[in-house]
Amino acid sequence: MGRIVQKFGGTSVADVDRIRHVATLVKRQLDQGDQVAVVVSAMAGVTNGLVDLVRRIAPVHDAHEYDAVVATGECVTSGLTALALQELGIPARSWHAWQIPFRTDDAHGRARILGIDTDTLEARLAEGQVPVVAGFQGLGTDGRTTTLGRGGSDITAVALAAALKADRCDIYTDVDGVYTTDPRIVAKARKLDRITYEEMLEMASQGAKVLHTRSVELAMNQRVRLQVLSSFTGASGTMVVDEDEIVEHQVVSGIAYSRDEAKITVIKIADRPGVAARLFGPLAEAGINVDMIVQGASEDGKTADLTFTVVKGDADRALKAVNALKGDLGFAAVVHDASVVKISVIGVGMRSHAGVAAKMFQALADRGINLQAISTSEIKISVLVAEEYTELAIRALHAAYGLDAA
Amino acid sequence: MGRIVQKFGGTSVADVDRIRHVATLVKRQLDQGDQVAVVVSAMAGVTNGLVDLVRRIAPVHDAHEYDAVVATGECVTSGLTALALQELGIPARSWHAWQIPFRTDDAHGRARILGIDTDTLEARLAEGQVPVVAGFQGLGTDGRTTTLGRGGSDITAVALAAALKADRCDIYTDVDGVYTTDPRIVAKARKLDRITYEEMLEMASQGAKVLHTRSVELAMNQRVRLQVLSSFTGASGTMVVDEDEIVEHQVVSGIAYSRDEAKITVIKIADRPGVAARLFGPLAEAGINVDMIVQGASEDGKTADLTFTVVKGDADRALKAVNALKGDLGFAAVVHDASVVKISVIGVGMRSHAGVAAKMFQALADRGINLQAISTSEIKISVLVAEEYTELAIRALHAAYGLDAA
User: Could you tell me which residues come within 8 angstroms of residue B153 by beta carbon, excluding any fewer than 6 positions away?
Assistant: First the structure.
């Protein structure tokens, strides 16, 4: 007998029929003799509708009230899902964060989990009851409802799986697993049976949308075995596991891309020690994350061009911050380009294989694609290219690393 | 400086614009130097939508989960209303039942209030903060969210006004007060400036929909001064007050009607002691409320016809219960008629005036309207007539008692 946490996302509980179907998926797991705890998101579209109401009333709003309003979507689905389970003769009840309690700090809108009191849930699981926990929400130390931010219900599920020492946390969604790359771009993309936490984390941070980085990070730190699978097909999905569970690695497991990049180039900035610190210090203070950084070669020995990327939403603030330094740093100009895409090849196999980067650069050069920036980590190589090459570049790399399905 | 509880119904918080308008009504009260606590219903249509989801998933459902789902509508509006107040520079925060706590028993779906912990709310009011309380909901002794049943948010408001010893409880709705009768039927109907608790209670139980009996009863018992007024017009409404606050009474204050009646006649039932008890006992045991009862004269000295009314929704069950007694009681037949309406004239002035009933019967007889049943209380006379006479009868009575506006 195992213990499984099943999490169902917004499209999986989008309407009454989908919720009934979710109940059958829970039943299927119970019929295997497992204990099951369920975590649900709000019905697809509901949270956005609530956020919209909040923004229309108060464009700049009190995060306490934002949380009080938007957390209600999950309260609704947890109750409805408990009812659907009861209809199948399964003892079930809904749990809102304050009832468990699922405790967080007071950072409303992006709360951090402090702890989950599992005594009552454990007792109910032992009695055969299925707890249906409202995802995305917590109880702050201020006694008010908090929300966990983007990917919140996944985080709820992973944290609950860790607290309950579950054997697995199944993340049900509308795709049937993690793919070698986006199947909308590469028809020959393959579903991965397994992927390591580290690879999944890089995939998520480099643009893959199936899981949010924070939930993968939490799963990795708490050693929660994650499965990503579809609530629509019923097929087995992708397991996210420890590296030592995978016997033989592909050199490259997947290719991610992100269109959410803006490139900023500071032209003819003094080429001397300390300049980079004086440029990036103020950006960091403004809360702007700088991703890739490339310093061009100095032609005159005195100045060089410096290029870096930020997410598109931060571009205006970054430009403003850099321009404010002009008098101090004495560069010639700042230009910016949002028509770029970041493409990343990811694989733990890179650690033990040479030539991975060379193969990437060659494949792109063969298609005449210019690299505007490069960054690497132990298991990832990212390049910045003009947006118009997105599909061409991804297809070329997918083939080059032997990822195409037969 | 006074203290006012303002309650806003579903149409008053139906959308973002209406919620903004509600905030201005709160501000207007604060600007008069009063402390204000707000109670809100769910946005119009939201509760029905949630009830519909519950029923589609589970036609016969666990009342705990029903409450968990349907109580969320008020959580949303309390947050949104707090935000709208903050936008006007007013310190405000939402309160859900479990946070106060607003304690009830565990009768989910129709919970009774046990008590309201007001210490924190008192402290916030003293600081000038406006509490915006989610109506309709409570915290059961089982630690779960309950709902109070029909008219729930009015009950929340009255109970809160009592607990906070408020000077007045203003019930904002989409009509501008209590009328002498339904203005859709009698164009000359007048808004009442004042009405006694007893009259309001009779109006509500006899079919007037502006307030639910349970909230009026609570207000009467707790001596909470109620005002019914419109959130749309901003005009002063109708005060519901103690009888001694009204110097001169109309003999009749208002005329109510209810189409929700079904008439059941037991033909040729034995005319001997104990028969009525054996007939109505089983109905009471089945939870069916019998309203009007008329025993016809016995023609043969042995049997008579017995007529009574129940609400339309109970008619089928009542017929079944009566038919089951046929062998025991030996009546000839049971017939039923749902094409009836109950019309009631109400006024505390009746106590000191003779001839009120005679005037009613004469006015109806003059129009050729036959009375199928009559019942009276100290401050009310009700008659049952054929449904087709509804408007004619009400207009005749409105004129006969001098209620028509000049």
Answer: B7, B9, B39, B40, B41, B74, B135, B136
Q: What tens digit of pLDDT does each residue of B60-91 get?
A: 999 999 999 999 999 999 999 999 999 999 99
Candidates A38, A51, A53, partner chain B, best to mutate (most B CBs within 10 A) = A53
Question: Which residues, in sequence order, are CB contacts of A267 under 8 Å at separation 6+?
Answer: A305, A331, A332, A333, A334, A335
Strands (E), B87-224: 92-95, 102-104, 113-116, 130-134, 137-139, 145-147, 168-173, 194-196
Top pLDDT among A393 and A243 is at A393
Asked if B329 is an interface residue toward chain A (Cβ–Cβ < 8 A), one would say: no
Q: What percent of chain B has pLDDT over 70?
A: 99
How many C-alpha atoms does A19 have within 13 Å on its Cβ side? 28
Q: Model confidence over B380-402: pLDDT tens digits? A: 999 999 999 999 999 999 999 99
Mutate to test the interface with B, among A38, A61, A72, A87 (most CBs of B within 10 A): A72
Strand ranges, E, within B117-157: 130-134, 137-139, 145-147
Q: How far apart are CA B227 and CA B169, in angstroms?
A: 6
For chain A, domains (ranges, CATH) are 3-174 (3.40.1160.10), 244-406 (3.30.2130.10)
Q: Which of A57, A78, A84 sits opposite B19 (nearest CB)?
A: A57
Per-residue pLDDT, averaged over A108-136, amounts to 96
- Give me A246's structure tokens: 């995978």
Q: In chain B, which residues have their Cβ closer than 8 Å to the Cβ of A20?
A: 57
The string of pLDDT tens digits covering residues B30-63 is 999 999 999 999 999 999 999 999 999 999 999 9
Of the candidates B16, B61, B72, which has its C-beta nearest A83's C-beta? B61
Q: Which of A57, A79, A93 is the closest to B80 by Cβ?
A: A57
- Give the pLDDT confidence score for residue A244 in this predicted structure: 83
How many Cα atoms within 13 Å fall on the side-chain side of residue B83? Answer: 28
Q: Is the pLDDT of residue A249 over 80?
A: no
A69 and B79 in contact by Cβ < 8 A?
yes
| B270 to A289, B285, B290: CA distances (angstroms) | 91, 22, 20
Chain B residues within 8 A of A78 when measuring between CB atoms: 68
Q: Taking CB atoms and an 8 Å limit, are B94 and A54 in contact across chains?
A: no
A20 in contact with B, Cβ within 8 Å: yes
Q: How distant is the Cα of B210 from the closest Cα of chain A, in angstroms?
A: 28
Asked if B75 and A68 come within 8 Å (Cβ–Cβ), the reply is yes
Dist CA A136 CA A147 (whole Å): 6
